[in-house]
Amino acid sequence: MISNSEHNNGGAMVKGNFEPLPVILENGRKVYGPPSNYTDPPPTYQCELYVTRIPTHLDELTFLMWLHRIGRVYEFRLMMDSGSSTRGYAFIRFCSESEALAAFELLKHLFVSGSDDRLGVYRSQGKNRLYISGIPRSIPLNMLQEQFKLCFPQMHNCTAYPPVRNMKTKPLPSFTAMNFVGAAEKEENRGFAFIEFKDHEMALEAKKRLTPGRVRMWGVDLKVQWAKPKEELQGGMKNMNGYPYNRLSGHPFIPNDFCAKLRLYCLANNLCIPIVVYGPISPVYYLQYAGILIKDSTSGRYSMMIFEILFDRMSDIHLAMCELAVKMIERNVGQIFDHSLFRIVSDTKAELVYTFKSHEELCNERSLYGEFLQFKTILNLAYSLKLLAEHNSEKLLILYKRSFLTSQQVASFELDSENTFSKFYSILPTFRNNQKLNNNFNNMEINLLQNPEIEHLPIRCNTDLFKFPKYGNERTFGKKSIREHFNLKSQHGYGVKYILAYVDYNSLAQRTCYHVEQRVNSNPIWIAGQSYQKSIYN
């Protein structure tokens, strides 16, 4: 999330690989760029994005710093009202189309401080021309240029055509060169014209000043529309990998792949790599306990989500957990939220049971002890997640990657050799054979199994455990109530690659929890990857 507290002083200078961008204020817009040392030809409209729903008070410099994580910004044009308020939209042009494609996808997952909604992001369509139709055919061509210039002062060019003459008509008498020019000036037009502007922004401003879709000239209402880009007229639509593909829509995206969506949210909002920890299972009751840790790389604040999952009808419990994590991030507009305790009761339904601020608060909530079959398992998971959150994220990633350099059947590492809770078994980042992110985004994941040695608990049976409460009826226990229900979409559709019902030590040692294409007899000699903060790319 971009916060106004992350302010950068000293002009439009940014850190890291950023560079100073000249800034001017003109015609109600603030323009950053182009870079003073840029010598290549100006990037085309294919490198430009149109961004809407920008908060009224935007910290432009912090936003520019975020943009430069993606690539080199050629120009940033922010529309301004009087004072320091924005008009809610801007144009961003990168130095290459690949960088614009990456920004197109990542900006849609960014939360900006001061806004309850995400940005609207569109690829520039090269629409710098307006198509005017309904022109009286008696108007000479030379008059069109003059009159349209009065209506559109920022017009760059006007293109109109003489009528197509019937070739069977009697040939016109011959003219001298001068007489022919005079005759051409009196020619009628075809009833339409193209008004060209310097860029899409100027064309958009001109179109907005008109009565929607109309302009009155020569006593008639002329129809005003966007002209199709010349490239689209010449090349039409592309086709990629058998899918219908429009350049404006980005890459094909699997709608139910919430694992990918969670990683994109973390990449966009400066969150650390999400950590998924699998806890014990109860095979008799088809229960899996697990958790997800989300941590802010700047403040160090974190949120842990703990799950009790009835897995007998689940397709992929990993996707189900990621889906709920995505919903919590969206509900809290990208900010770190209270810790949460979920119960996933089927492949379509889950419930938020309890929220808490600390592990100690969870331990002291005695009313929850009779609500879950193995509540001590939940407490153990919360403590394990707390240990991971308090550890340096960069060092944790190094430990995770190095753990695979072992001859042991199952890779493992320890945060503290004297604490049984600090030992974790490492699961391959790609054990589900999940699809790589588009645009070569950082594909790193951290998947762990909690040390099974800490779990020696007697099984307690609660016959009411899986009775799903009806909507509209509130079931209370202790100080809290079951406040929210979720419909799951991740267990059906294109995002489901294989069946992942549960993960325990035996399934990890035998690789049965791995996708068939990821099942190898030994650990990999090296795990590549870096933190999201070092690079958003692989």
Outline the fold blueprint.
Layout: E1 23-26, E2 29-32, E3 48-52, H1 60-70, E4 73-80, E5 86-94, H2 97-107, E6 120-123, E7 129-133, H3 141-151, E8 157-160, H4 177-185, E9 192-196, H5 200-208, E10 214-217, E11 220-226, H6 230-235, E12 238-240, E13 243-245, H7 258-268, E14 275-282, E15 287-295, E16 302-310, H8 317-331, E17 339-344, E18 349-356, H9 359-364, H10 375-389, H11 393-402, E19 412-414, E20 423-427, E21 446-450, E22 476-477, E23 480-481, E24 484-487, H12 505-509
Parallel strand pairs: 14-21, 16-17
Antiparallel strand pairs: 1-2, 2-4, 3-5, 3-6, 4-5, 7-9, 7-11, 8-9, 10-11, 12-13, 14-15, 15-16, 17-18, 18-24, 19-20, 20-21, 22-23
Helix pairs in contact: 7-8
Structural class: alpha+beta
Give me the number of helical elements. Answer: 12
Largest sheet: 9 strands, mixed
- Average residue pLDDT: 81
Helix content: 10-25%
Oligomeric nature of the chains: single chain
Note poorly predicted spans.
5-16, 166-185, 231-253, 457-481
Task: Please give the domain count.
Answer: 3
Strand content: 15-25%
Please give the order of strands in the largest beta sheet: 19-20-21-14-15-16-17-18-24
Radius of gyration: 30 Å
Could you give the distance between the termini? 21 Å
